[in-house]
Amino acid sequence: MTATTSVTGAPDTPPTTGPPKRRGGILSKIAAPYKQSHGVQRFMLVTGTAVSLIIVLLAIFAPLIAPFSFDTYQADGARFPTQGEPSDVNPWGTTVQGFDVMSRTIYGARTALEVLILAVVFSLAIGVPLGLISGYVGGWLDRIMVLIMDALFAFPYLLLAIVAAFLLTNTIDSGIVVTAIAITVVYVPQYFRVVRASTLSAREATYIEAARAMGAKPSTIIRKYLFGNVVQSVPVIATLNAADAILTLAGLGFLGLGIQPSEAAEWGYDLQRAIADAGAGIWWTALYPGLGIVLAVTALTLVGEGLNDVLNPTLRRRRIKRPVISSSAVGPASAPTTEREAG
Amino acid sequence: MADPVLSLRDLRIWYGAERGAVRAVDGVSLDLMPGETVGLVGESGCGKSTLGRGVLGLLPEGAGHAGEVSFKGRNLLDIKQRELRSMRGPELGMIFQEPMTRLNPLMRISDHFEEVLQIHEPKIGKKEARNRSMEALRGMGIPPTRYKQYPHEFSGGMRQRIMIALALVLRPAVVVADEPTTALDVLVEAQILRILADLRRNFDTALLLITHNLGIVAEACDRVAVMYAGRVVEQGPAYDVTTKPSHPYSRELLRSTISLSTTELHSIPGAPPDLVSPPPACRFHPRCPNAMAVCAQQWPPTEATSPGRRSECWLHATDRIPVGLEQPLQREALAASEEA
Amino acid sequence: MSAPVATQTLIEVRDLNVHFAINASFKARVTGRGGATVKAVDGVSFDLHEGEVLGLVGESGSGKTTLGRALLGLVRPTSGSVKLRGEELVGLPERDLRPKRRHLQMVFQDPHASLNPGMTLQTALAHPLQIHKLTSGDAETQAKVRETLELVGLFPTQRFSDSFPSDLSGGQKQRAAIARAIITGPDLVVADEPVSMLDMSVRAKILDLMIDLKERIGLTYVYVTHDLASAKFFCDRVAIMYLGRIVEIGTVDEIFNEPKHPYTQALIRAIPEPDPDKALPRDLPRGEIPDAARPPLGCSFHPRCPKAFNICGWEARDLQTMLESRWMDLGEDRYGEERPLVGDFSKLKSTEHDAFLPAGSGKDPGELLALLEKIRAEEPDEPMWTGVKEMHAEAHGVRVTFEPGIDPPLYETGGAKAACLLYKPD
């Protein structure tokens, strides 16, 4: 059995070295981009993933890692100083409200992770099916959906998030959910667009028509034939959007919307409280939450761009060594000078 | 006999792939005489297109090469890219399968021609350029009234003829045509084949015609080279090869062609080999109905079976087969599913 | 091929039309009105008997693929009737059509694109069974898939059932696509160029498989192709299509031994044969398939037909074609003399059987008339002249009156039926 495809008429191309077959466990699927990447791409992917993992670990194990809880203002009966310099008790100092900066920064990662996971799940759950249906069904439904999504897309994203957060604050108790929904509203159009675009091109594929000829219902076609071939573009955009979402989350927090200070620690809120401190030479209250935002955004962007480079066929450049033609490996030359008349 | 305008000597072009080197062209020697049309046939994945592009010095990125492509006393594979580019057009031409992608949709046909002529022959006057272009188009059956039109106003067949005219307007010494009629209809294909057949009488251009259709070879070619797994296994006058093929592969390929006179279907078992690790010795031996023990062990010699014909097969050098290796090759039967 | 045994009619097609609207202009695209229609299938009628292989042969743009898809309801016919065993399929809503798909299946041209890249053969083949609920339980489904894989020659089946399409060669993929088509036990399989993307060495094997399956499980095929040679071998009857119409239909013997329609005759002679003693004839039809949105008047083949005569439907466009092809053959000098006499072709006006050819700016219409008369005298064999009734000079050009054309239906010819006025009964 050979891997050579044979299409008469198509130019003879070397056997394509596409991405490895999608099979085996989910682990090998996740590992695939790391194996395929090279050089700068690989550096981006690995660094981004490593930093992201550290932040995720910090978030999950925040109660174990952070010296105090995010809303602790005293230890052993002694109140922390307000705006206290880094000390043995409070290694990164304390805030204007007398909270421990280190604890708040670490708990901030937890908040960010919670909001991100919720927001991504919501966006996927809404954006992907809408994109699939809109793209496959087409017609008026598609036009209306595109109009709505484009209208959402046209809004400045922070404004949209503010409006959404503002409207929802009174109906939903959990600030985390409110913020996640506000972010979802901002990012759904992007998922919708990407999924709809790839659905539109996949819809024309012969195997979709074959499924129709088989007698499959539209819902079956969408589930069994389109979904698997369309979602491949989603991981990249999900990661890039996640990076963007951190900024939106911080922006909302900075404006005092969404998450209430009593509910969770939030980097954006902390930054806002630290504004006055910076002028007074109190650097630690702003530095650490700010660093948290920068690191998280950078890490996720690196992963997203790295994935894009590897998975996007238009950007992918294969790095393959130029083969060396060794004399031992070759057959004889069929030079006409060695002609010999056959008897 | 005249000197060949282009000659390949032991040309090898290997691609890099993740699994190893793909030996797309592996030791090909071939001559192109001025004004002759040589057909290059074989199944897909045999290296035909790679060879065709290699002849013009167009190598894919990351390809290794050895041997030579000598044109006017120079090895095209050693010439710098910049110089090679300036040779394309006046010396070397190429006709592709899909014409629409090669014409700029925003340029009139006249602009295409005048641009090409002015780049390569700066001294040419406007009137002269126009006359030359219209003459080339006339030869391809494009009426002069349509000289100022845009590519989208022409049908597929006409665009292909425009591409041929564009490749020929500079009267290059060598033209490679890669499946020029595959995308076209039967009647249009016949028109273009007739034009190509007329070319060899009217021009001095040597044409390398890559095709999978033996009917086209019989119709439009003077000589034919049959390619299998990166090697030319047989070459000779088109008439002789299509009537009395001497290599088992040519014979099987001819038999499996479905034509109007076909009364019984015939096919070659198996598939062309993976060019990363082709079979040892004769590359056709796993599929060859005439395979002998020697075919799997030693490279077949290239024998001249008649003047101007060469065939790379042990059947034509039976006197040199080592003793004991003449018996038919024992091998497992190929399952029906082991096919291309 | 042996002659078809007369059995009952499986499919009956009557006056089938498939028209597509093309909105060429911006206004038409915005308003959805006013665009032209392309008659991809234009009034096609034929019967298909059980166990028969019918070839639909034509060049690209002839409507053969659309006709094949319309039979299965994959393309909605505009009007007409397709009856499967007497049961009307045209006009059925998609929901009611879906269960019928079990009996009507399709094999596509491109084996690489017709299989879902994310499905193993096992899943891909099991799916039609699940859709039509033909098996009960996984074990039975699996057994049926195995059996079908074996039937199409993909064995050992355990190796193939778990492989993805990307693991297979072109021929193997087409076998898998055929397996998917036959697993529901269909009556009719429409095969759309099933071998044209495969290598010569494999084509025969796939055709062999299809013939084998026909005999073993009693299939009826519609074989859509542009390749007359394989149609001759594979089909019982052949319908030659041109611009949405069947121009000739008959048994393989009739079509290939005694082609009646000039188009069929040309097609058969235009196939390059691997026999070097048979050179291509030099008098093949000129030109190419016309724009389907503006088909020629009368017989749509008349502009290319070497045997066309007065009632074939001559019109203004033919005048332009004739002048252009003349100037192509003449040298630059004569072209330079004659071209200025004729005005802009885009101002060539046409009403019914009348054409107005404008004279070049500042030229006397009389000179133009003289030129046309000269051409007529020089090229009396040009078929267009048989259809020209009268030419006279007017204010700014020449008016040419043509013989009214007839749009030919399929005539009896004593062999195959042909849509050609040569066979028009008096």
From TrEMBL, chain A:
Residue stretches making up the ABC transmembrane type-1 domain:
109-304
Region of interest (Disordered), ranges: 1-24
UniProt entry keywords in alphabetical sequence: Cell membrane, Membrane, Transmembrane, Transmembrane helix, Transport
Q: Any idea where this protein resides?
A: Cell membrane
Similarity field? Belongs to the binding-protein-dependent transport system permease family.
Xref: InterPro entries: BP-dependent_transpt_permease, MetI-like, MetI-like_sf, OppC_N
Protein name (Swiss-Prot/TrEMBL): ABC transporter permease
Q: Does the keyword Repressor apply?
A: no
List the Pfam families hit by this protein, alphabetically: BPD_transp_1 (PF00528), OppC_N (PF12911)
Its placement in the membrane is given as: Multi-pass membrane protein
From TrEMBL, chain B:
Q: Which Pfam families match?
A: ABC_tran, oligo_HPY
Entry keywords, A to Z = ATP-binding, Cell membrane, Membrane, Nucleotide-binding, Transport
CDD domains in the cross-refs? ABC_NikE_OppD_transporters
Instruction: Name the Gene3D superfamilies on file.
Output: P-loop containing nucleotide triphosphate hydrolases
Check the record and name the SMART domains matching this protein. AAA
Q: Does the keyword Transport apply?
A: yes
Top-level taxonomic group: Bacteria
- Its predominant location is membrane
Q: Which residues form the ABC transporter domain?
A: 8-254
- How the protein sits in the membrane? Peripheral membrane protein
Q: Where in the cell is it found?
A: Cell membrane
Give an example GO molecular function.
ATP binding
The record's similarity note reads:
Belongs to the ABC transporter superfamily.
Record's PANTHER family? DIPEPTIDE TRANSPORT ATP-BINDING PROTEIN DPPD, OLIGOPEPTIDE TRANSPORT ATP-BINDING PROTEIN APPD
Name this protein carries in UniProt: ABC transporter ATP-binding protein
Q: What is the lineage of its organism?
A: Bacteria, Bacillati, Actinomycetota, Thermoleophilia, Solirubrobacterales
UniProtKB/TrEMBL annotation, chain C:
Q: Which domain of life is it from?
A: Bacteria
Tell me which Gene3D superfamilies the record gives: P-loop containing nucleotide triphosphate hydrolases
Q: Mind listing the UniProt keywords for this protein, alphabetically?
A: ATP-binding, Nucleotide-binding, Transport
> Mind telling me which Pfam families this protein's record contains?
ABC_tran, oligo_HPY
Ranges for domain ABC transporter: 13-268
Keyword Plastid present in the record's keywords: the answer is no
Q: Does the keyword NAD apply?
A: no
GO-annotated molecular function: ATP binding
Q: Which family does the record assign?
A: Belongs to the ABC transporter superfamily.
Q: What is this protein called?
A: ATP-binding cassette domain-containing protein
Species the sequence originates in: Solirubrobacter deserti
